[in-house]
């Protein structure tokens, strides 16, 4: 499902992704992105969130919760979650993901596109790395409510940090500061 060619095609739709700042910053961004992908997907083995019992629908942002058996649990490399994220990604791609969120789990290119879109447009992950806020800011943006704020990092947050350090090492760049929540 997760192919290199689909990832490259998706990334090419976002020219600033992995190409902003110095070579070290670019490498840190790719390391941060893939560290989070590795945690979210269990090393690219999961397309859908394991626990699919949560509906993740919130109308406070002005986005409806369509009638029926719609659930906005995580799908894809960064596990796109919540009705408002599916709606915004769908609008960005001229698709109705609000009515059919499972499209993200059925199309590898769309899954990568949605994850890079989330990274670049909707979560502050790109700016966290390119503006030297540190890897920890990406954890907070992606899953901070669950993994941060308990006095110390949870195991999933620590996994992300370890993966990030490993990817940085492989890419020959220091991980920088502010790695944790």
Automatic annotation (TrEMBL):
**Domain of life from the UniProt record:** Eukaryota
Q: Where is each Glycoside hydrolase family 19 catalytic domain found?
A: 1-181
GO molecular function list: chitinase activity
| Any one Gene Ontology BP term | cell wall macromolecule catabolic process
Looking at the UniProt entry, the stretches that span the membrane are: none
- Which InterPro entries is this protein grouped with? Glyco_hydro_19_cat, Lysozyme-like_dom_sf
| One Pfam short name | Glyco_hydro_19
Identification of the protein by name: Glycoside hydrolase family 19 catalytic domain-containing protein
Q: Which organism is it from?
A: Selaginella moellendorffii (Spikemoss)
């Amino acid at each position: 499902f997760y192919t290199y060619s689909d990832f490259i095609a998706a990334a090419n739709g976002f020219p600033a992704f992995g190409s902003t700042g110095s070579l070290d910053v670019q490498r840190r961004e790719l390391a941060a992105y893939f560290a989070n992908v590795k945690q979210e997907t269990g090393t690219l083995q999961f397309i859908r969130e394991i626990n699919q019992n949560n509906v993740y629908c919130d109308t406070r942002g002005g986005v409806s919760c369509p009638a029926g058996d719609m659930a906005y649990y995580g799908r894809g490399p960064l596990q796109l979650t919540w009705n408002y994220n599916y709606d915004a990604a769908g609008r960005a791609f001229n698709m109705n993901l609000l009515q059919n969120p499972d499209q993200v789990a059925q199309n590898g290119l769309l899954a990568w596109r949605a994850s890079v879109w989330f990274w670049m447009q909707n979560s502050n992950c790109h700016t966290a790395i390119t503006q030297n806020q540190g890897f920890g800011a990406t954890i907070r943006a992606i899953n901070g409510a669950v993994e941060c704020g308990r006095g110390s990092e949870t195991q999933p947050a620590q996994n992300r940090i370890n993966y990030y350090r490993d990817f940085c090492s492989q890419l020959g760049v220091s991980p920088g500061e502010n790695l944790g929540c």
